[in-house]
Amino acid sequence: MTTSTTPVPTLTQTQAFSQVVSLRIALDHDVRQESIANLNQLLVDTITLRDLYKKHHWQVSGPTFYQLHLLFDKHFEEQNALVDLIGERIMILGGVSLAMAHDVAEATLIPRPPKDREASPAQIERLQHAHEIVLEEARTIARLAATNGDDGTNDLVVSNVIRTNEMQAWFIGEHLAVLASF
């Protein structure tokens, strides 16, 4: 594999990460700034949860392999849709969405999994813990957004993030009951 020695041209920055651009969406700058910060944290944790699902999709084994393999991939796709919705909401509010793996790894609250292949009960426990982290922060964000009059953020978080994560946590949690019976 060859690597290019040609330097990447410096492009003009259009918006600094910490900058909130002025948008005419009838929300105060400070409200938008708080929602952007909260949503960026939710975004990096949702990206991490999404990627945990793909890791476990590839590495699952055991008597429920087929069911979990399909379920983990389905949940990955659902989390991927949430990533897009959250990232776009940040941009709608005038912010800059965190998007690169190194930024996600630096900021996520979800513990990093081992590189090793884990047994499916450990995978499920890890996913449940990640869902709990996302749900705790989502509930806080929803309350703050409602208090601040940021109805768009509140609706996104309640209607999409909380409902999807509650459903997924339930679905994977039920697999622990099945595994305990083997």
TrEMBL record:
Q: What is the lineage of its organism?
A: Bacteria, Pseudomonadati, Planctomycetota, Planctomycetia, Pirellulales
Protein known as: DNA starvation/stationary phase protection protein
Q: Which domain of life is it from?
A: Bacteria
Stretches assigned to the Ferritin/DPS domain: 36-179
Q: Which Pfam families match?
A: Ferritin
* Annotated source species: Blastopirellula marina
Tell me the PROSITE patterns matching this sequence.
Answer: DPS_1
Q: Which Gene3D superfamilies match?
A: 1.20.1260.10
The cross-references to InterPro entries, in alphabetical order and at most eight, read:
DPS_DNA-bd, DPS_DNA-bd_CS, Ferritin-like, Ferritin-like_SF, Ferritin_DPS_dom
A GO term for molecular function: ferric iron binding
Name the family the entry cites: Belongs to the Dps family.
